[in-house]
Amino acid sequence: MNDVLHLEMLEKCYNRGQPGEISVLQGLNLTIPRGQVAALVAPSGAGKSTLLHIAGLLDTPDSGRVLIGGEDLSAASDKRRTEARRRDLGFVYQFHHLLPEFSALENIVLPQLANGVGRRAAEARARELLERLGLGARARHRPSALSGGEQQRVAMARALANGPKLLLADEPTGNLDPGTSEVVFGMLMEVVRETGLSALIATHNLDLAGKMDRVLRLAGGRLVE
């Protein structure tokens, strides 16, 4: 199975059957093969965060199927979905959500420990990722001692720590100035390409979107290339 992500006929509606019902996804289909990086472009409120949450097993559709690495997880138990998120998926958000009381290194070690990796191996992996993202000298700094771009690079390293099949990113550089955004995005793409990772990256930045393999526009609850 070469498809890392397959979404089939997704439907999602908020306030269903009530006044103010909002239909966000309407028969949406998407397939991302191994190694492909796709940009997701949509205006605010169009449903891109909803789509990412469903693809990332953080939310469930009203109907349709979600397959990760060929496994249908649409109706899987909470335990199985949690296992799949830890093993197969990496998340990067617009705001880094780092744990403030832990160092950069520890923020990357913790999700690995939760996934059953031993501390020594987890620390080695964390140091490797920090070096690749230009933060080797900042390993012991807490988030408050890092710049915005450095914090987001730590968040990216954390997302990559468990060697996921699929990276999901929601405006990963949206909180950074244009210069820093270019640098951070370039580093992210370099690591993604090196590892052969698949990715679905939501962005408002059309220049960044144009550097990915595909550009998908979410409109009327469906995707248009």
Automatic annotation (TrEMBL):
Transmembrane segments: none annotated. The keyword Cell membrane applies. GO terms for molecular function: ATP binding; ATP hydrolysis activity; transmembrane transporter activity. InterPro entries: AAA+_ATPase, ABC_transporter-like_ATP-bd, ABC_transporter-like_CS, ABC_transpr_LolD-like, MacB-like_ATP-bd, P-loop_NTPase. GO terms for cellular component: membrane protein complex; plasma membrane. Keywords: ATP-binding, Cell inner membrane, Cell membrane, Membrane, Nucleotide-binding, Transport. PROSITE patterns: ABC_TRANSPORTER_1, ABC_TRANSPORTER_2. GO terms for biological process: lipoprotein localization to outer membrane; protein localization to outer membrane. It comes from the Bacteria. Residues 5-225 form the ABC transporter domain. SUPFAM superfamilies: P-loop containing nucleoside triphosphate hydrolases. PANTHER family: IMPORT ATP-BINDING PROTEIN, LIPOPROTEIN-RELEASING SYSTEM ATP-BINDING PROTEIN LOLD. Belongs to the ABC transporter superfamily. Macrolide exporter (TC 3.A.1.122) family. This is ABC transporter. It comes from Rhodobacter xanthinilyticus.
